């Protein structure tokens, strides 16, 4: 069977320059021992559990996007030959320079303009029988923040939170990319916040803040006051607000 190119038009949703800048800011913020890491802790734990479940033998591995720097040393301690890359050094929307037994992507897949093409390139970057695991935020993420920014913007709303991928769409994209077999799972993390500013800081710490190509205007002081006011009705009995992070795990084999 001859494999032809996947034809599609590439939307302009995200800014690659803002994506790279966000990654560098997160790397710098991770230098603070109190920086939030819980989303990446969960992603890394899931990757390692999948390696254990599939009895993955050591092999050449590319880790993309781990701002915490925790996955590479863990894999090396298990005998894997590991390279690390970020969006500043690797364009996931272009062919990879070499092939690997494993390609692991943490927290970046959902901010690509050409996601179908990127998945094809990731598959082509796998050796025969190789495995890709990508972890990213899914469609159930940040419902509380969505409500808050709507209140803050008032009658004239702006796109401030990224469009997100749900499980059926992710599964369809994996099949379309031509993986020999694929699995898409999702799970939910919940975090509790007493202050809106802490939620925003946690997103920035982990490189999860907005990078839309058409950047919305910055909050004015009145808008920030409205945002904080919009945060108040979401408080539960203990005075805190629950925010939700849906994590998608996309696993595919060449």
From TrEMBL:
Protein's recorded name: Class I SAM-dependent methyltransferase
Molecular function GO terms recorded: methyltransferase activity
Keywords attached to this entry: Methyltransferase, Transferase
Xref: PANTHER family: ARGININE-HYDROXYLASE NDUFAF5, MITOCHONDRIAL
InterPro entries assigned: Malonyl-ACP_OMT, SAM-dependent_MTases_sf
Annotated GO biological process: methylation
Organism: Alteriqipengyuania abyssalis
